[in-house]
Amino acid sequence: MKYNKILITLAAIFIFTACKKEWLDLEPSTAIETESSIKSLRDANYALNGIYNTLQSYEYYGARMTYYADVTGDDAQAKSNTKRCANYYMFRYNRDNAPSSLWYLPLKVTRFSNNILAQADNLPVVLETDQADINHVKGQALTLRALALFDATRVYGYPYTKDNGASLGGCIITSIPDYDYKPARNTVAECYNQVISDLTTAIPLLKNIKTPGKINKFAAMALLSRVYLYMGDNTNALLTAEATINESITAGYKLWTNAEYVAQWKVAFNNESLFEIVNTDVDNAGNEGAPYLYWKSGYDDINLTRSFYDLVNTDPLDVRRQLITTSSTRYYLMKYTGNGTTELPTASNITVLRLSEVYLIAAEAAVKLPDNTKALAYINAIVSRANPAKSITGTVTLAQVLLERRKELIGEGHRLFDAMRNNITITRTGTSHLLDLTAEEKTYNWGWYKIVLPIPKAEIDANPNIRDQQNPGYNAD
Amino acid sequence: MLLALSVLPFTNTYAEVPLQENTNRNSLVSQQQVTVSGVVVDSKGEPIPGASVLIKGTTKGVTTDMNGRFTLALSSAENTLMISFVGMKSKEIIIPEGQNSELNIILEDESIQLEDLIVTAYGTYKKSSYAGSATTVKTEALKDVPTANFAQMLQGSTSGVQVSTSSNQPGGAVSLRVRGLGSFNASNNPLYVVDGVPMIAGDISTQSGGGFDIMSSINPSDIESLIIIKDAAAASLYGSRAANGVILIKTKTGKKGKTIFTYKSDFGTSEFATQYRPILNGQERRDVIYEGLINRATMVDGLDATAATAYADGLIDTYAPVPWDGFADWNKLLMRKGAHQNHEFSASGGTEKLTFFSSLGYTEQEGVSYQSMLKRVSGRLNLNFKATERLEIGANVLFSNVQQDVSDEGGTYTSPLYSSRNTVTPSNPAYNEDGTYATWFPRNGDRNPKSAKDLNYNRQWLTKAFNTLYAEYKFTKELRFKTTFSYDYNLLKGNEWNDPRTSDGSKVNGDMNVEYRDYKKLISSNVIGYERSFFEKHNVDVLAGYEFEDYKRDNLEGYKSNFPNVDKHDISNASALADVSGSSSQSRMISYISRLNYNFDSKYFFGVSFRRDGSSRLKPENRWGNFWSLSGAWKVSNESFMEPFKKIINDLKLRTSYGVNGTLPSSYNGFMNLTGFGYDYDGQPGIVENQIAYPKLSWETNYNFNVGLDMEFFERLNVTVEYYTRTTKDLLMDMPLSLTTGFSSILTNVGKMENKGVELEIQSKNIKTKDLNWTTSLNLTKNTNKILVLNGIQTEIASGVQVRMVGQPYYTFKMIEFAGINPDNGNPQFYTNTTDANGKLVKDITEDPKNALPILMGSADPKLTGGLTNNITYKWFDLGFTFTFSLGGQSYDNAAQKLEHSGSEPDANISAIYKDRWRKPGDNTSIEAFIYNNPSRMNDYANSRRLHSTNHIRLKNITLGVNAPKQWVSKIKVDKVRIFCSASNLLTWAAYDQYDPEVPTGGSAYFEMPPLKTLTFGIDINF
Fold this sequence. Notes:
The complex is a heterodimer.
Chain A: H1 2-17, E1 31-33, H2 41-56, H3 64-71, E2 76-78, H4 86-89, H5 101-120, H6 130-156, H7 160-163, H8 188-205, H9 217-230, H10 234-250, H11 261-264, E3 273-277, H12 290-294, E4 302-304, H13 306-313, E5 324-327, E6 330-333, E7 350-354, H14 355-368, H15 372-386, H16 398-409, H17 415-421, E8 426-427, H18 439-442, E9 443-444, H19 457-462, H20 464-467
Antiparallel strand pairs in A: 2-4, 3-7, 5-6, 8-9
Chain B: H1 2-7, H2 21-30, E1 33-41, E2 52-55, E3 61-63, E4 69-75, E5 80-84, E6 91-94, E7 101-106, H3 111-114, E8 117-120, E9 123-126, E10 134-138, E11 161-165, E12 174-178, E13 191-194, E14 197-198, E15 223-229, H4 232-235, E16 246-251, E17 257-272, H5 282-300, H6 305-319, H7 330-334, E18 338-350, E19 354-366, E20 373-386, E21 391-406, H8 416-423, H9 449-455, E22 457-474, E23 479-498, H10 503-506, E24 511-534, E25 538-561, E26 576-600, E27 604-615, E28 624-635, E29 649-663, E30 674-676, E31 688-691, E32 700-713, E33 717-736, E34 745-768, E35 772-789, E36 796-799, E37 802-805, E38 812-815, E39 818-821, E40 828-831, E41 834-835, E42 841-842, E43 845-846, E44 855-859, E45 864-874, E46 877-887, E47 890-893, H11 896-899, E48 947-949, E49 952-963, H12 966-971, E50 976-990, E51 1004-1005, E52 1012-1022
Parallel strand pairs in B: 1-7, 13-16, 47-51
Antiparallel strand pairs in B: 1-4, 2-3, 2-5, 5-6, 8-9, 10-15, 11-12, 13-14, 15-16, 17-18, 17-52, 18-19, 19-20, 20-21, 21-22, 22-23, 23-24, 24-25, 25-26, 26-27, 27-28, 28-29, 29-32, 30-31, 32-33, 33-34, 34-35, 35-45, 36-37, 37-38, 38-44, 39-40, 40-43, 41-42, 45-46, 46-49, 47-48, 49-50, 50-52
């Protein structure tokens, strides 16, 4: 009898512990299968948020894309040779140590945009407003894909204006790649055409309402005007810039006034902001983000140069002088000082496109056409705002526009691109530059191979079609 | 006799020895009597009180008194005595007929017998009949060495095992490699099996301080034996988890007999085992910087001597001022001599039906950095109960609570190692003149490592309950069934506090991160075994079973800042919520196991095992893997033709095994295309595609071949030689993708890697007399690792200064080659290493590192490692020591990119290597000139000067103990009192002396806490 009890217990253990096959089917708790990830308008908007989140990363607009063109120019610098931006500032990257961020992150944005675009037309339309919302989603995905390709092309390809886009830029990808996808690079001209095509498709799809931290119609238009300007299509650049200015003003956008100027840098989604990356005190690019790098009490990584300080200080009444603070012989940019609700720099939004730039695009395109009346109007909107006592008269020169761009757009990621696309030689002078810069790191123009980054080693190694497409000069390093 | 019995303290535990006094008394008159008396002693001649002396075939007997003596009357028919004592081998003595005798009976320790058993979850083998490769580690020899984690004791104690620590903070992560590196991306850790049940192992730290090894929750004193299974023969039964070897841990159990109480207490100190990255002191640094300023002025800027002096005088106080309170000693400010203490109490014993072992331990260890500490309270209860003749049930219960405090490691600004060697200098005072903490450091910003050390903490608590219940039922003598149910529960709690008075906390007015994480594993195993002998010479042992395991991990984390009070750190007190997160992950497995062992006449052995595993970590169609092994042995010494040599060769066995086991992906969902949550933007949910999967992702399989020869000569000398190959196919590997896919890699099964090696173990009983025992053992390991296939496309994948290259070991260095310092100008030089028409390297010298091509610079792996142990006992004294050595390996000094700055970082510390710097033309040295803002600085280029030999010999541990003589301690009713002192890493002879030669796995040294030299004193009491 006792044995029976035992046998029953043992049998029970066996039966109880015998498992079904499905017992081994487990799902992750923090992810879903990609195949079913975008099934509704709601999902698509969350997927868009994922792209903006990618832009927010310090590897993209959160820091590297935002400081790259500044520290490789003459107005910002690494505080010392061990700082995060030092390799960029000193052009100390080569085919082996090239950072992959500015190649890889735009490609991620491209893939994520393509994921949305592939599903956009299959999304169920339930409400009447849904189709417009779906179009707005598509428009954003297209604009983000265009921005990503444009960024890759201007970082890795020589200026369009140097050789009419004959050199190699990024990779045009308009569908979702398989894991063994290995494309070759496209020319700069092909890339610009693709960017323009995406943007011109996107603009009619986009709404003109202002959504904090997201792309709308005016952001896409402003970007398009910048693209035209970069490729030397001054007619379209001016046309698009003017359209952006006029239409956005109708929608409530306007330039800051002189009185507002300094305070507006602490205001999120202000009147002239066309597209900015949102950072909050709990969701930001962290200590690797540009604001923390520019901050004296942060990593104190990026300083303004002495020469830039002197340049701005020639007019102490220029309102933009107030955005520079000095500490012994260091100069700090005060554009990233919180978002109004917090003083914490890491919570500062990152400006990608704002109205002042569009005025300067219009001015530059007008100078080049030339159309001096318009050039005067647009440049003085910026010059006289900075100091109402000042204005430009007579024939506006390219040098004047570029000088104004330096003062206005410092720390927003423009200087190297502006100088190179206009074949300006950058000369680094002044006492603040690090002693170990070599002669060629102090004076350079579009003839120097290092004004574009080398294609990262990871891509060269894994992709036989790009293996022989390293940017010229780097293979001889 | 009655008198003797009445003073014996523990006679009542001998229920099985009824003492029939009345019968005895009656027989006095009726039968002829012989009186036998004597003493029972152990192998050292110490008397054994309480030993049982029984007349064979009867229930008559006595127990020995406090002096080990006994007297017994025998009738004429009775002539054999059975003498037994717990922990000793029983003995039979035949009494010479018809005489009164005085006997001296020596009992041998049973533990000698235990070492010859290989106990696996699926059966116990005698080592002499085992066909696989397994080594038993005698913990006895290591028990006095203080260590939080028993795995650290294994270094040098056996062949084929490499132990390395990523950090030597108390409780830091220890990694064990059995027979080399088997995997690229999946786990390389062996499977840890405690009392037959696989235990959750590894580093569970959630913080940055060098790891928290889950094994530090086990009190090493509770371990009776450790067995390392190295080949496929037994390991294949553990299937998919056993590809990297199996560590079988057997904890202590009670034995029938007197209850034994032990108390052990020890305490001691610890410090760095070798000097660690020495730097120049304040004045030396100031002098070298002054020289660097002069050099800058004259050699680079071309100033004359007067102008140069003016230049140097103008700048020297910027970079090397004398602080208000004199030069600071940051090593002293941030480091200490660590102290440790340990107290343990155990009781074990049992009756015929019930045996038990229980223990309670408390350990406290301070690290050498101030913030680093470990406290453990642990308890264990092992019970076994024979319910009926057929049914045995039992439980193994472990409960422990470990608190670990860690200091930052690596390159964090306030890490004590990093800051004291690099960023804070003797010219930077820790305090301002008003007594407040200094908040400005030229190279470290506002980060004061001293205030961080005083006010911040990284603290974790691990609470572990690891409980196993089992029942075994014998249907017949041959057929048995065993069911085991185990639950391994671990709760990890972490607190990370940044005080408002430190740089980390000041920006947010203090912040606290709190984390709870639990790890749970349920294992059920049901096994049927059948053992039988046929026709006397055919012995068969068959086993079949079914197992499953369910593993789940949950975590919840909260992070808040802005605290009103610096002393109250609960997150409820803070005003700003920064982050809350939580998630869970789960993994399951089902297994079917079977095994057949056969031997003929104990001469020919044959074994086969088969296991089928199904895992949740793979797609349903690739989920099931089959693992198997074959093994055979020939016991040559049991052949009749060996009979004439029996005196010379006592034992000779040839054995071999071959088998397959597997490794699962580390990722639980690696086979899925996934889009993840949590990529939020502006407070709104965001999703991002974050994994693409290889459609055919499957098991990584490991093919093990082993051949071994065991020999024993003259009953003194044991020699074991083994040769093995271990080939891993379908390596789980992150194959690099073109970044144009939006992904940088994909987990695939593509690579192939091989480990080959030879192992030698020699054990010699040099002297074996009553008073003096001396044994020596030596083990040698030679393992060669080689990559056979990478991803099938590339033959070379760069990984920093290392390269994964077909035909080379995994840890192979590739960098430009240093060619010494130009004696004329003090500049570093490099070999160009271009290839000429004949394929030979051209050794032209260049000062421009850009003109030097990187070449292969050998591997990190040592060519030969080993250990030499001696144990000597003389009367009351015992002495044991182990030397370990490693030859032919290299390490790469990753810290050189910070420390070898050649003057380009005048705000930083200066490494002591600059004492040998080039100073004037004609100097022959390997250290470049020190020049302020040096244009050709050595920290910019990964070059072969940073490679250093890891050759070393180390006195790993040494213990000297003294036993108080039995006569003395018995007066206070105590069985044993032993006092001892021990030391670990006491002496080191290393080829390179700037940092410890035992570097973390992979051969890269940065700023990790190096091995410590510990000194311990203790006492051990049994009663």
